[in-house]
Each structure stands twice: as structure tokens, then as C-alpha cells.
């Protein structure tokens, strides 16, 4: 081992590290992939479902898997709770009944923090330290099939230690999380929920409401769906997120969300007034202000809407073209994460959307496809 991770084995008193992941889905699976195969590390996955445990091992995401919380938790140095927000407290309660390894670190990846941090304080009575966590990266996809070694790379990873959290435990967790290549940010759990409510939960709700509004119009005229391409697609990717994961997040953060909805309604009302009054300068000013703030967002950072790098390719309408493009990319060792035909443009035979998890892959793919005379748009 070398460089920034050379102090890794100092994370425990012996050179073996057991990491238990409860819920090996998109986030749990991505964490497992970051830890698995590192020297001395054993990653055990937990699922309530025996067929899922078999799948985790068969896909090579974990070293072993079990349906027993007790077996997964036994002697574990780090325990990651990666289940839906609505189940986090149940897992804390189960762990609180078990003989956990002294000084072990229990953390979670839930999209809300205040309630679980408060609830998990009880783990200290078992000699464990709870530190709330939230990797600010994700996808509209879910399940272990969507897990990726690179998901958290360059993303922010929020930790919410309290004043009672031993600093050496925070330090230990931070050192472990270096394997994810995410950037750690520490904040208070309540502040986390306010801010993440605004920059993540509200956009998900708006995307869903917008899609449902348009779907309603589409019921009486199919042209809505057929013409909905550029802007609509950009702002609504996250509307395809997992319904149960988001049910739990929004219910858990409901007080914050109710205030944010009211503020959103005021923003829309402001637009309504500007339009009623025919105030063109006022409308333009709204766009100027938004553009200015948006231009200051971190570029191509994982997390929020930009976690996937995409390009669009005009494709002639003949059988085999999709396979041909996928093969060209594969032969050039470019990792394609998704490929989708979009039938929204009437003027060209078809448009293929290619998605990548690395900006590098996107750049290589556009260069390659352009060199092969394809029309590529960003
Ligand atoms: N999806 C995202 O973009 C994202 C990003 C950051 C954090 N998170 C948080 O990560 C956690 C997991 O989300 P995910 O996107 O990985 O979801 P996922 O559906 O991909 O994975 C959830 C895991 O929990 C298990 N699970 C589901 N319901 C369960 C239940 N009732 N009891 C026990 N286990 C159950 C599933 O088998 C799966 O292994 C959530 O708390 C979510 O808020 C999600
Ligand atoms: O990129 C996405 O699909 C996401 O929704 C990721 C996202 C976000 O809103 O930024 C979603 C939920 C999380 O808790 C953290 C990250």
C-alpha cells in the first residue's frame, strides 16, 4: 500500500478490518466495491432476503453475505447502514441489542440526518460510535445492479458528528472513506437537512410534479410526450428515482419540505405577477440572476443532476447501428453506463443517448464517434 492510503491498516489494532454493509443497493454496493479487495479487508453484506445475499456474492460486490444482522455485525469494525431512510432506526435498534465490537463505528448513508443521528445516540451504551453520513452522489437507478466503484468519486460526502463524537473515530472513518475518493464535508445534522432539502429533495419533488403535470396534458394529446426533449429531459431525469426511497426521504424531512414548498410557490407566484404585468425586464432579470448563480456551481462534480455525463448521437435508422456503436466504444475500452434510443425528433431518423460515469469516457466517446463521422451533440 502506498501514498495517501498508507495509514489504512492503522484503522484497527490488528491488520484485518471487517466492514459490514446493511443493504447492498446502489449506495451500499458502491461503498462495498470501494472497500472490497483492499489488503486485510473483509466486506460482508446483509440482506433480509436470501436470494439477494447470493446475488451480492455472485456479482463480486462483497466477500460474503448473510441474512443475519448478528452475524454481519459480529466483530465488525465499521457498520454501514445503507437501507431506505424509513428503516434506519429499526437497524439501529437491532444493533443496539447486539454485542458490538468495542469502539466500532456505525454510520449510515441516509439522505436525511437529524432523526437518525438523534436516535443512534443509544449505540454509545453498546461501546459503538455512531457518525451520520451522506454521500452526495447517486442516480435515478437503484439496486446492486446500479452500484459502481466510481459512483462516489469526487462527490462530497457529508459527515455529521456531534459534540459527543470522539474526534479519533471521525478521523478513522474519514481515513476509511478515502477509498471512495469522495471529499468529506462536516456539518451539523439539522443544518444538513435544511440545505439538502433545498438542493436535492426539493428538485426531486419539482421534477416529479412537473412530469405529472405534463403527463396529465398528454392524456388528451400525445404530442406532449413526443415533443418533450431537451429542457424537459434535463430537468426531469431525477423524476425516475426510486419511489420508496423518496417516499421515506420526503416524509422524514417533511417540516423542511413544507417550508420549501411554500417558498417555491412564492417563486412561481413572482413569475405569474411578472407575466401578468407584461414585465419583460423582470422576467429577463430572473434568468440573469439564476444564470449567475448556476455558473458558480461546481463543474461536472458528481452529485446533483450532473452525476452522469451524456451525449446524443444522430443515428441512421437501420438495424444493427446501436450494436455497432456499442462495439466501437467497447473496442476502444470506453465504459458506457447506459444507452437509450430517443424518438423525440421528427427531422432525423433517431437519436441515441449515451451515458457515462466518467467525464473522460464522455470525451473519448465524442472524439471517437466524430472521427467515425457520426453527428454528436452534447
Ligand atoms: N439514490 C441516491 O441517489 C442516494 C444517494 C445518497 C444516499 N442515498 C440513501 O442511501 C440509502 C439507500 O438508497 P439506495 O439508492 O442505495 O437504494 P437501493 O434501493 O439501491 O438500495 C437499498 C438497499 O436496502 C435494501 N432494502 C430495501 N428495503 C428494505 C427494507 N424494507 N428492509 C431492509 N432492507 C431493505 C435493499 O435490498 C437494498 O439493498 C437511502 O437511505 C437513501 O436515502 C441515496
Ligand atoms: O444524481 C442523482 O440522481 C441524485 O439524485 C443524487 C442525489 C442528489 O439529489 O444530488 C440524490 C439523493 C441523495 O441523497 C444524494 C444525491
Automatic annotation (TrEMBL):
It comes from Cohnella silvisoli. PROSITE patterns: ACT (PS51671), PDH_ADH (PS51176). Its EC number is 1.3.1.12. GO terms for molecular function: prephenate dehydrogenase (NAD+) activity. Residues 17-305 form the Prephenate/arogenate dehydrogenase domain. Gene3D superfamilies: 3.30.70.260, 6-phosphogluconate dehydrogenase C-terminal like domain (1.10.3660.10), NAD(P)-binding Rossmann-like Domain (3.40.50.720). It comes from the Bacteria. This is Prephenate dehydrogenase. Keywords: Amino-acid biosynthesis, Aromatic amino acid biosynthesis, NAD, Oxidoreductase, Tyrosine biosynthesis.
